[in-house]
User: Fold this.
Amino acid sequence: MKLVSIVILNWNGKQHLELFLPALIRHTTHPDAEIVVADNGSVDDSLEFLKNEYPRIRIIELELNHGFSGGYNRAMEQIDARYILLLNSDIEVTEGWLEPMIEQMEEDLTVGACTPKILDFKRKTHFEYAGAAGGYMDHLGYPFCQGRIFDHLEVDQGQFDHATDLFWGTGACLMIRAVLYRESGGLDEKFFAHMEEIDLCWRLQRMGYRIRLVPSSTVYHVGGATLQRGNPFKTFLNFRNNLLLLYKNLPSRGRARTLCYRMILDGISAFRFLFQGAFKDFWAVVRAHWAFYGMKSSYRGIKNKNKYPENDVIVAGIYPGSIVVDFFLKSKQKFSDLDFKNRDDEQL
Assistant:
């Protein structure tokens, strides 16, 4: 058994493998770490490139594109390690990036998963959209990060250089205990892609484990390598999966009310797309709601690890206010502008 398996899920990403594998190999110096590329049915020459240029890197070949969730779940069936590190192919790691995360997991058994500080590869002074300095969520289910609220990205000035509990860590770079990955049911394949890591982190917290930022580890992320922002399919996945996320994980008490509020806000977003001339995105939101209604029954009353009973676990990282109101109406664009004073009183 390896201590840690760094697993890159690749789909037609030869250009990213060419660019970022050299640094990953150079800066992964831990003697008990392995690098694995799980190929998600690529049709480019990624596999030929890997076999010719990096014959020592282990490859897991999947015949089809199973999406982010399905690809990782199938790869994990062939991984034997204490810790699994999910790593996007468009991540540039830095010297000493891995050891702080291993130390965090080894020193505190209550930590189920951890994530590094993630900066923008194209603007290395700024945080990156997908993960920044760790994720949170408001009480209506809108995700945001330390260093990133909606589209506003902060400059990294060391303001988040302290370890802290999070609500979620990005799947772009997430270390998780392998036993918990399997016990929790892994990534939800119904999501296909987007927000599946938030769902997983929420379930880990319901199990009593913590999600932790490790700011002494830094990586740089290109972002949008598979689906660019503004892609209608990405819009569809984000809106549908956000509703599924809430339906699955919220306690039954108050869940219907929260979903009602979210659907009203989603409707406002849809008409905003319409007024901007983004007709495909408008239609994507409509389709997302139809899909949610068609899928939610598959979670009703399930007995597996995908849904936990109301067990009085206090989940960290729930913002008691509305990030939509604070950002768009109160112009609170920085994480430091937000009032988290009642966070510990929130229970989800």
Observations:
- Residues 232-345 form one domain.
